[in-house]
Predict the 3D structure of the following.
Amino acid sequence: MALLELSDVQVFYDKIEALKGISLSVEAGRIATLVGANGAGKSTTLRAVSGLIHPRAGTIRYDGTTLAGRQPHEITAMGLVQVPEGRRIFGRLTVEENLAMGAFTRHDRRGIAEDRERLLQLFPRLRERLRQVAGTLSGGEQQMVATARALMARPSMLLMDEPSMGLAPMLVEQVFETIRTINADGVTILLVEQNALMALSIADHGYVLESGRIVLSGPGRDLLDDERVRHAYLG
Amino acid sequence: MSAVSLALWTVRFLVVALVVAGTIGTILKDRYTTAQWFEFVLFGLTIGSLYAQVALGYTMVYGVLRLINFAHGDIMMCGAFAGYFVATPLENSGFLEVHPVLGMTAILAAGMVVSGVIAVLTERIAYRPFRRVQGFAPLICAFGVSFFLEQTFRGLFGSSVKSYPAPKWEGVEFHWAGLSVPGVDVLVIVLAVAFMAVLYLIVQKTRMGMAMRAVSEDGEAAALMGVDVGKVIVFTFALGGAMAGIAGVFYAFLFKQVYFYMGFTPGIKAFGGAVLGGIGSVPGAMLGGFFLGLVESVGPSLFLDGIGIKAPYELRDVIAYTLMILVLVFRPQGILGEHMAKKRA
Ligand SMILES: Nc1ncnc2c1ncn2[C@@H]1O[C@H](COP(=O)(O)OP(=O)(O)OP(=O)(O)O)[C@@H](O)[C@H]1O
Ligand SMILES: [Mg+2]
């Protein structure tokens, strides 16, 4: 069953049509990826799903219910959580507080403590820096905070906008490894990436976005072998 | 060196020279006794503690909305009036004389609740429709709210100055090492500091406080974490309003009067304190408020007397505003603030 389903979604910024009617669906438990060049509309798609902007037309359904008219915090409370582009961690809050912010919609103290412990095992670097103000962390560590923060919500689905951006190749490997781990724990993932090679190789299903339109879609492996994708994104 | 920076350095130099020359002159003249200096400092701390309380409202609202709530001084006035309407019957019936603690609690509670509620209402009615509007419209709306509150109170309660009840215990003075310490000053400072400590704990330690700090930094990211930003904004107005209400009651007690326009000057001064401390910073607002109060109280005698100015105390507002302008010119981010440009990086 499709956990997230967009059909014919159109988004405008004033008069600019950023999404020209896109449809995609993500199966529960899978990793889907949305790849495309700068300005293709990848972030816009995720922002529309999270309720940060409202589509002019089309529907977005999550777990069978429409998201139309819902506010971002309500969508997060439904278990559909976004790790935004550029990480957007709270730089003046401590790492600990950032994690607590991630669990903002939850009230099960015990469960929150358990999840925190589990995440600190996944990202041991953060344990040493719990009391540190997050703005002073390195880029890689900030990405860990952003991911851990989102997971603190115990999401059933994670939207990740370019988690590998600005990281050294070795760290990029790590990020993708983490995504696999998270998915193996049962979290459905929609991953937005410019690093098409990496994204398509871990994705069950891929979509290629070009100027606000989905021009290609199919199993990640197939897209990797596709002549047009190779030509446009993989050099 | 460009002409502008040369001019700025000249201004800096002149200000410093004036302050130094004035201070030396005052010390040489030796016109004031230790007791008088003590009085200046104590009054500076007293009035500063009120500026600090009001400054918190400016800084917190700025944090979550990037809006200067220009009506905040008037919200303080509302609290002072509420306190007045509770204090007067309590005083007339003699209750306030016999039960100072209970009486003050009731008066402060009235100020807090009324200011808090009015702050929340202004947000709901006047600011919320502008939340997504860029440019000057929200600020102009804030000016409108300020006039609206002033004129409403003038219409309802007249434009005359009403004298605040002065219970006898208020005149108590402590004597210590040859100095006399007015009881009201101590009461105001101690309670103001206590209330600010509570506010600080709320901001630092509670879930709502943490959400408020998160929204101040990045509202959209906070929303993505499941924070209802609208609720946080209401909470911020309530908290800042309550604080201003307390300050309003104290301010009225100190100057023994209430009138519809009374919020304007302390409002501007408190805003100056918030800017001085770094707008958006909670500890900065407290620090800035105290600092402004001190400079305004000690400054006239310390800097101006020495350079031969006749009635230095009449110029205390000039000192306060000059300080504000100097901060805006030389350190717009304030004492504890960061550059606005950096914030978004
Ligand atoms: N706030 C905005 N106002 C106006 N236009 C915008 C706004 N945000 C995005 N756009 C435009 O919408 C289009 C899609 O932008 P979007 O951010 O979704 O691209 P993207 O695929 O995420 O790109 P990148 O890989 O650079 O992050 C671009 O042409 C962009 O200029
Ligand atoms: Mg993007």
Notes: The mean pLDDT of chain B is 85.
